[in-house]
Amino acid sequence: MATVLSGKTIAFVATDGVEQVELTEPWRAVEEAGATPLLLAPKAGRIQGFNHDDKGDTFAVDRTVADADADSFDGLVLPGGTKNADRLRTDTGAVEFVRAFVDAGKPVGVICHGPWTLVEADAVRGRTLTSWPSLQTDLRNAGANWVDREVVVDANLVSSRKPDDLPAFCAKLVEVMAGPRTDA
Length: 184
Known about the structure:
- By secondary structure, the protein is an alpha/beta fold.
- Helices cover about 30% and strands about 25% of the residues.
- The chain has helices at about 20-30, 80-90, 90-105, 115-120, 135-140, 165-180, and strands at about 10-15, 20, 35-40, 45-50, 55-60, 65, 75-80, 110, 130, 145, 150-155, 155-160.
- Strand 9 (about 130), helix 5 and strand 10 form a beta-alpha-beta unit.
């Protein structure tokens, strides 16, 4: 399995307030599968990770979202963290990047509060996904079918609820990113 994503570049879009383990575990999974992960954020420099409510590590941003082109990436991961997701969904550049990615039918992994950015990008209508439970009304109002499961795959969209789901999420994420592209 070490090379199933060889030659692929995966965008991780996050900002200050990202739930650290929801960034680091999927990052490790795609990297171990042979992909090159890159951290994109609305601002250059470093972003602040959190372990729930406590500050964690900081992470170097590889490229700003404004300087990124969705065509340059083979997959996208939107980690959670309440502050992270709330900030991203109000950032026009991040929302446009996510929308371009979804419109291209490329694989997207999203966990916890990450679907807020998909909602803002109008990318959940008619899709089945899961999230942190407090987002279920937002997702349903945006036209999604919300379910309470560890991991959900809907074509090229992989979603999970919380950090406890990371083993299943990471396994499915790599599997979907290794497969053929599925236009939604």
